[in-house]
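Example record for the data management plan.
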Amino acid sequence: MARMPRASRESVAYQETYPAQPKEQVQAEPLRVIRTRKRTMRLPQIMCLAMVAGIAGFLVCNQMRLTELTTQVANQEEQLQTLQDEYVSLKTRQDRELNLTYVENYAQNVLGMVKMDSNSVEYIEMNNPDRIEVAKNTDGVLSKISQYVAAVKAYLQ
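Corresponding structural encoding:
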């Protein structure tokens, strides 16, 4: 068998299958120089950023204060509960000690007192009604001194 020649670009078969296309020449456009600016923050952006930072700081400070006050309230409520419990205890004790039966038991058992019966009462009759006699006032110096000493003595007793 005869071998077929290979088609190459110079062969007729290749040229018929792929006709030569004229090369379009692309005209080069002049290059444009694009300048990029450094992105700087403008005043409104800086103000917005500062405002957001200020609000965030304000919220953090308020949250800290809220936590502190919540802790103080919890401590005060705990102290209030303790004092209320103590009040109830003292009120119960007061009611028990002021109860008449408790007072009677204490008087009989601790102090040794007994209730008075109607036969243990003694009535005393006086024939002469009470009288007060006023002594004559002597205006002597010695009497005034003795009255003063007696008043001081009575005061000190």
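Summary line stored alongside the record: The chain has four helices and no strands.
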